[in-house]
Amino acid sequence: MTKTVIHFIILAAVLLMVQVVCNKIMLLGLAMPIVFIYVIYRLPASLHVNWVLTVAFLMGLVVDVFNDTPGMNALSCTLLAALRRPVFRAYAPRDIQEDGLLPSMAAMGTGAFFKYALTLTLFYAAVLFLIQAFTLRDWLLTVERIAASAALSMVLILGIDSLVDTGHGEGL
Description:
Blueprint: H1 3-22, H2 38-42, H3 49-67, H4 72-91, H5 94-99, H6 105-108, H7 110-133, H8 139-164
Helix pairs in contact: 1-3, 3-4, 4-7, 7-8
């Protein structure tokens, strides 16, 4: 195993443990911190889609098992993984796409990484909370939960990225 793979495994394990605890927290009854999806964002852009889908599904499944949410996170993570590459290509500078570096603020630039992470976080939160509500009766509450959770998660994800990244997107 390479050093990067070991770092990804450690990062995934730590963020999954944090997420299991965070799923029990709802700030003001609206915002749930979603931090484990950072691992999916951080996977190398050149990694084959099948691997990304597999990792995302397994991470979502782990969260589902520990939080008794029957498949909601697994579905949300799998859809997120499917959307990751097109969103990355839309926001990343061309030289980053060719090199296959790890997506981060240092590698992509703060603005590009922020747009990349915000798009994916909003998508994940939307899928998760729409599945959870499974109705549009309280659509305003669902929209508030999506927005509040995405905002809180973005603050945490940007903080995690600044702590984890070593410089140029080449390491963890």
